[in-house]
Task: inverse folding
């Protein structure tokens, strides 16, 4: 089974509108971390936001917020007031195991297109 | 903040030659680095885990003799694509964990290397 599932291959939104990118995960660990990264066409990975499995409040970073629903194992990214520069691939990822040594498991990504 | 430098950003080589990609942590020590490969419009696929001073751990299906990884110091890991072929053309990206990172710290990524084998 896939550990990270992003069901939306692409999303289209108009500038200044909010958009939600879906992410569900699968793990048997009690302690884990969930991440969202942005990858523009230039290729670099840009960290956006982090949510720990024990964090009781949803994470927020500027225009980004993470809608964490632990029982449903979902960690959707909400981008408020979309900007043209938000057009990029967005990856949801999860980190399990010992923090010092574990890598991230990525979803397949969602392409976001923001139109004027 | 922490920065990972990856070099070169782009490389074009002829089939049969070898290419070395460097990944450096600039302001922190990284006992563990990771190498990923990404095909167009696809997710990152982990190739191997590079541990300072020991042999790399390769993911299933990744040829260790073709993708040589050397993590000689706490700030440098290299990936060498040996006897490159056109099917090795891809985007390669490294990431590094700070030696004392907490559970809330993300991995730090290099900017990637676009390899084209002609």
Result:
């Amino acid at each position: 089974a896939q550990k990270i599932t992003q069901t939306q291959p692409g999303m289209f939104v108009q500038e200044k509108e909010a958009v939600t990118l879906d992410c569900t995960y699968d793990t048997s660990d009690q302690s884990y971390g969930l991440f969202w990264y942005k990858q523009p066409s230039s290729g670099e990975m840009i960290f956006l936001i982090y949510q720990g499995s024990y964090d009781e409040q949803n994470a927020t970073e500027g225009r980004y917020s993470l809608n964490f629903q632990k029982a449903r194992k979902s960690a959707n990214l909400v981008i408020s007031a979309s900007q043209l520069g938000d057009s990029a691939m967005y990856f949801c990822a999860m980190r399990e195991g010992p923090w010092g040594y574990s890598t991230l498991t990525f979803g397949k990504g969602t392409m976001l297109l923001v139109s004027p | 903040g922490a920065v990972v430098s990856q070099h070169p950003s782009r490389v074009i080589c002829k089939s049969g030659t070898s290419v070395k990609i460097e990944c450096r942590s600039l302001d922190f020590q990284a006992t563990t680095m990771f190498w990923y490969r990404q095909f167009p419009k696809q997710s990152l696929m982990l190739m191997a885990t590079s541990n300072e001073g020991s042999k790399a751990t390769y993911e299933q299906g990744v040829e260790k003799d073709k993708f040589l990884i050397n993590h000689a110091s706490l700030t440098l890991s290299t990936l060498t694509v040996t006897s490159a072929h056109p099917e090795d053309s891809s985007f390669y990206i490294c990431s590094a964990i700070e030696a004392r990172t907490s559970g809330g710290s993300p991995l730090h990524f290099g900017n990637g290397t676009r390899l084209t084998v002609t």
